[in-house]
Amino acid sequence: MTQKILIVTGDAAESLEVLYPYQRLREEGYEVHIAAPTRKTLRFVVHDFEPGFDTYTEKPGYTWPADLAFSEVDPGDYVAIVIPGGRAPEYLRNDPELRKILKSFFDTDKPVAQICHGPLLTAAVDALRGRRVTAYPALELDMQAAGATFQDAEAVVDGTLVSSRAWPDHSRWMREFLTVLRAKAPVT
Predict the structure, then answer these.
(1) Which residues pair with residue 59 across a beta bridge?
(2) Catalytic annotation present for 33
(3) What is the 3-state secondary structure (H, E, C) of 80-121?
(4) Rounded to 10 degrees, what is the CA torsion of 131, 136, 142, 147?
(5) Domain DJ-1/PfpI, which positions (predicted)?
(6) Distance (Å, rounded) from C-alpha 14 to C-alpha 47?
(7) Do 173 and 155 meet the contact criterion of CB atoms below 8 Å apart?
(8) Total-model pTM
(9) Strands 155-158 and 161-164, how do they pair?
């Protein structure tokens, strides 16, 4: 039986932060499912850094179908979860079904990969208290308010939690996450 990994996301997620781990984990041999508030075609965005802007810019990105709705997810079917960033976490953190899913992964100490604004979701289930994390640098104060120690690094590993700042750090983020996965939930 193939090990399954869940990606939780929604509209306005960063295209690269969904599709890079989706493809990389499939390449590794995992079965990957994307869950969203409902089964629909999701509309991702592209955040880029342009001269003269104080923050990132946002443009339309790829579209991609959600495999299942949060209400259809059985966390016991999955060995790990990936939480992309973008703007999606800002509203997804209010979804009670998603909060139940996330809490289940932390309660069972399964591997969790989060990137960019994704830690807003793990903060919403009080899963960052006492942990070391990174995130998009503008979230440093949010991470501290959630009880985490913020580190400005490409990737931070704290037990089974692997966090990263943003898509430019993908290679390091996935290398670290795969190290955790191979130890906790290897492809069979």
Answers:
(1) 46
(2) no
(3) EEEECCECHHHHHCCCHHHHHHHHHHHHCCCCEEEECCCHHH
(4) 0
(5) 4-178
(6) 7
(7) yes
(8) 0.97
(9) antiparallel
How far apart are the C-alpha atoms of 21 and 13, rounded to whole Å?
Answer: 13
Residue 173: name the closest of 36, 25, 67 by CA.
25
Per-residue pLDDT reduced to its tens digit, 23-74 = 999 999 999 999 999 999 999 999 988 999 998 889 999 999 999 999 999 9
Q: Is residue 106 within 8 Å of 119, Cβ to Cβ?
A: no
Instruction: Write the DSSP symbol of residue 168.
Output: G
Cβ neighbours around 179 below 10 Å, total: 13
| Cα-to-chain-centroid distance, residue 136 | 12
Of the candidates 33, 47, 117, 170, the residue annotated as catalytic is: 117
Nearest in space to 125 (alpha carbons), one of 87, 97, 154: 97
Dihedral-angle region of residue 54 (phi above 0 means left; psi in -120 to 50 means alpha; beta otherwise)? alpha
| Helix pair 15-28, 170-184: axis angle to 10 deg | 40
Place of tokens 């969904």: 18
